Amino acid sequence: MPSIKIDGREVPYEPGDTIIKAAHRAGIDIPHYCWHPGLSVAANCRMCLVEVVPPPGKGNVMRLDVLRWDAASKKYVSDKKPKLQPACQWSCDDGMQVFSESSPHVSEARKAVQELLLLNHPVDCPICDQAGECRLQDYWLEHGRYRKRMKDEIIHKPKAVSFGPTIVYDAERCIVCTRCVRFVEEVAKDPVLEKRERGNLGEIFVAPGRTLDNNYTLMTEHVCPVGALTAKDFRFKARVWFLRTARTVCQGCATGCNAYLDYDPRSMKVYRHRPRENAQVNQYWMCDKGMLSYREAHERRVLRARVGGNEVGVKEALEEVKALLAGVKGDKVAFVLSAQHSNEDNHALVSLAKGSLGGADFFLTGRAPGQADGVLMVEDRNPNTAGAIQVATTTPPRQMSDLLEAIKNGRYTHVIALGAEVPVDAKTLAGLERLKTVVIAAHEGPLTRVAKVVLPACSWAEAEGTYVNAKNLAQRSERAITAQGDSQPGWQWVVAVAQALGHKIGFSKLSELRKSLSGAPTAASASV
What we know:
This protein is elongated. It is of the alpha/beta class. The protein has helices spanning 19-25, 104-118, 135-143, 179-186, 217-223, 288-292, 314-325, 343-357, 385-391, 400-408, 446-450, 490-500, 510-516; strands at residues 3-6, 9-12, 49-53, 63-70, 75-82, 85-86, 97-99, 161-162, 167-169, 193-196, 203-206, 229-231, 244-249, 258-264, 269-275, 305-307, 310-312, 333-338, 362-365, 398-399, 414-418, 436-441, 453-456, 465-468, 474-477. It has 3 domains: 3-67 and 80-118, Ubiquitin-like (UB roll) (Roll); 161-297, Alpha-Beta Plaits (2-Layer Sandwich); 305-516, Rossmann fold (3-Layer(aba) Sandwich), CATH 3.40.50.740. The model is unreliable at 520-528 (pLDDT under 50).
């Protein structure tokens, strides 16, 4: 494989790679603002300038004539220095040498770029939401550390401009890297942003008569390397240095975007969702609905067990479950799997049905289908439809409409269900009210309203889980916050129900459950 050398380190590259792309793949950080691996090259920030020595026999180093101040003679003297090249634009060539951190010319250039970008930048760090993860701050510490030389008043521009329902723009903080402009055009396919004016007057604006309002508006804030674009949802809510992060899987649809879930460990409150890079699934992006789905860690939650609509203790709820299911034959029980719940939860219910109660009638429920957008969002609005079908093994689950029809015909007397989401209205579920229904759910929904017993399950944010996306890729999601209220993982509730009925389900720990889960991915094979 061809390679280049970056500061003496051998770095392989693929045909067509630029220097910064090869470095990025190798884990080498070349400072940059405007470059993004998922967007076209703009080469306008000049922060990624490097010194390039061509391979032997392919030309000489380009040099520039310059005037250098000589402290001894106190005069400008003629000198030469290498012409630096933007690493985001310069293509790799086998045998090429690149000097980044080891070149004094590069260090001087980066310091100058930082000074230029900060000349008119307001000192907003104490009130800026980007503080703590701002590249202007980071690179100033790495490549600046100088006292400001310009004493003039900075150029003032519009502040707190609403670009649409989700984004606020501060032109004074903007370095006009055009990442947002390129994203809405190349990824979101909604080119409503553009740059206007030149030099110190440059800023981003929204096309006249339009607003920034599509399925991916929050990504413009995410790709912004400074504090120019901020999300109305996260704005002034938390400081990032207080937050901790878990690697999770988005619950919004069957794409299963890889994400970071940021939460405050002091209050165990979730504050935001961010995309996590995975070339096989979502590349670098997430849709707005997915990024805002973090709210479901706290909203519409079932936090206490209920019997007949009244909150009760865990022990009392399990006693009621035992009374409802005592002596019932498995063929009279309908088991409802959930496309919203993890493989672990669904497998536990299948194990209870087949191994303990002797049942074999499975049904599948979840959110109603939505509209695909041709970018990331697919019609299936559930994160684990494929996984729930897989864990049912030889007995594929049927649709909820089949269950409702069977209930009308008196086929079942009991229902044990995971999740509360049903793609039908409450009136259609009227038949369920006559049955002895036990629902294990993290959120309120149609099924919790008709259940005799409701057991509070953990949300995806509170429990580890495996989800299989539309491409049949199994992905692990980490636990972020501790369980709220009396909630516990759905599979633990299934184990508790089995124990209340006097049955052994075969596992009591997550590791034991995963071992028994046929075809469950190992930590190494699962995408994280």
